Amino acid sequence: MATLKVSSSVPSPSEDAEQLKTAFEGWGTNEDLIISILAHRSAEQRKLIRQTYHEVFGEDLLKTLDKELSSDFERAILLWTLEPGERDALLANEATKRWTSSNQVLMEVACTRTSTQLLHARQAYHARYKKSIEEDVAHHTTGDFRKLLVSLVSSYRYEGDEVNMTLAKQEAKLIHEKIKDKHYNDEDVIRILSTRSKAQINATFNRYQDNHGEEILKSLEEGDDDDKFLQLLRSTIQCLTRPELYFVDVLRSAINKTGTDEGALTRIVTTRAEIDLKVIGEEFQRRNSITLEKAIAKDTRGDYEKMLVALLGEDDA
Hints:
Blueprint: H1 13-24, H2 31-38, H3 43-57, H4 61-68, H5 71-81, H6 84-95, H7 102-112, H8 115-129, H9 133-140, H10 143-153, H11 165-180, H12 187-195, H13 198-212, H14 216-220, H15 228-241, H16 243-254, E1 255-256, E2 259-260, H17 262-272, H18 277-288, H19 292-299, H20 302-311
């Protein structure tokens, strides 16, 4: 369930565009007005606002926001204002240009989106960067990481609920054998994770647990903690089966006593607010005995905090 709260009486795109123009004029930028508009509009409404702003004022709203705002607040507003496919394309492209935790971001985009959403991201990547996401991921990665990630980002899974229980039994047995032999990078394991529907994968892992008395993630914990590929494999399975638990783990790591990872925090809130951030927030509270809104408010300040809280549906609008 989404946390985004769209105003009950939404002004026309032209009215919103006019108000945003007003927010940029004068001696200082009216950040509160920007939040009150953009943080309470759906993706389709934000798209129309951008189009209208350009038609009326001859300016790119995103460029204006970039010029007028700064720091983490700017990043949150810009990511949120992009269309979902554009946003995922940007996140993926950024991930191919840096090394720290970038493989996780690529996997996250590939595994927590629907087939249509991932296709839109790949199309947006073509339009924005004049090349494919697959070729950039292949160039950025090597070895087992390349095999897994290129397969994941190029996937187009069946989205239905139908499952083949005979196939689930066969592939549960196959995966168990590969894990027992520590062949985590086996081509069949990667093939199953990158091509099967999420319903089929869940059926396979349920059969795995029935047959072997433990969840597959528990089996994978027996591997080397320093094995980065194994860590990515665990995250892949979690994203495909229980994405809300994956996002809770990322948020918990992003909001900690040693400092806030604003990049991860902004990414999760802006990409999930229209999808399942309510479910993620409930799971976060269950596991951490504090609401996500309070945890974010403790670790952030100013307009950045206001924007995130608004996307959590916890502001007064």
